[in-house]
Specification:
Number of helices: 11
Oligomer: single chain
Order of helices and strands: EHHEEEHHHHHEHHHH
Largest sheet: 3 strands, mixed
Helix content: 40-55%
Number of strands: 5
Length: about 300
């Protein structure tokens, strides 16, 4: 969630996106129409017949910024971050058991993503693990996923809970929340003249690539977060992971923070609110989970982080 799951670590300034969920930002649309626009089957299947969660259409404002350029900026920023982690010997090797775990879970979730965004089938998906104690995880536009070891270790996440977090982060990318935020930020910053340029597709490519650094500081709204919770829950259920894991995840997060939440939690909707929303929507994905093929392999909870010796 984009420092979506984030507890700051000055030695490793990685992260993606902030969630802006202030007390006065709770104007969540509780009765949004079923999202079918990207499913490619709306002509054959009425909206009321779709099994799954209910969210609205993606924001039309997002179309003011080309998806290709946002994804290119995300890939560029991601590679810089991964390169920096590698230089600091903080990038988990391919044979790391917890990285193998993340990639196995992602392999089950990714095929379910295409129904929510047809661009996802062409994304160059990547999953990496950063050896840092931060409570953090994110998915950048274009399917670039990273987890920090701290969120696996400190919350003692089981596979279903990992899938809940990963599904949430993937949902941000599928619903193009970063693209929407970039469009709003740019429009606010420079006004009508830039909007005219965007609509005319003049120098928009250069403009968006120049905003690539914003991917580290973008804020997601309360509505974005609620939407990502629901879409992520459906992705996990379709992939065979227990959707009730979102409840235990938030219970663990609340117990771990003990009144002093990390930045990720402080900017998200309150834990009890999210738990109530998850519980209210569980009946919509229960059937999907029951019908889904279940994972044949389960992974151990992450052991304590072993800090590697630094050079010099």
């Amino acid at each position: 969630m984009p420092q979506d799951f984030d507890s700051r670590d000055s030695a490793l300034p990685f992260g993606f996106g902030h969630c802006s969920c202030h007390a006065d930002g709770g104007r969540v649309q509780r009765s949004r129409r079923l999202f079918t626009g990207l499913l490619g089957v709306s002509a054959l299947l009425p909206a009321w017949a779709r099994e799954g969660v209910e969210v609205g259409k993606t924001s039309p404002l997002a179309k003011l910024v080309p998806a290709e350029q946002v994804e290119a900026a995300g890939a560029q920023q991601y590679q810089q971050m991964i390169g920096q982690a590698n230089q600091q010997r903080a990038l988990a090797p391919a044979n790391h058991p917890q990285l193998q775990r993340l990639r196995a879970i992602a392999k089950r979730l990714i095929p379910e993503a295409q129904a929510w965004n047809p661009r996802a089938k062409d994304w160059r998906w990547e999953v990496n693990l950063i050896d840092s104690p931060q409570l953090n995880a994110f998915a950048m536009p274009g399917g670039k996923i990273a987890f920090y070891y701290g969120i696996l270790e400190k919350l003692k996440l089981n596979d279903d809970e990992v899938a809940a977090i990963m599904g949430h982060e993937i949902a941000h990318a599928l619903r193009e929340h970063a693209r929407e935020r970039m469009a709003k930020t740019q429009a606010t910053r420079v006004g009508a003249s830039v909007l005219s340029s965007l609509l005319g597709l003049g120098n928009v490519g250069d403009a968006v690539l120049g905003m690539g650094g914003q991917l580290l500081t973008l804020t997601f709204s309360r509505e974005d977060e609620s939407e990502a919770d629901l879409v992520g829950m459906e992705l996990a259920a379709r992939a065979g992971y227990d959707p009730t894991a979102g409840i235990t995840l938030w219970q663990k997060m609340g117990a771990t923070t003990k009144g002093a939440p990390p930045q990720w939690l402080s900017t998200h909707p309150a834990g009890p609110t999210r738990i109530r929303d998850i519980e209210a929507n569980l009946p919509k994905v229960k059937g999907l989970y029951e019908k889904a093929d279940k994972p044949t392999q389960r992974f151990d909870v992450a052991p304590p982080l072993q800090r590697r010796a630094t050079q010099g």
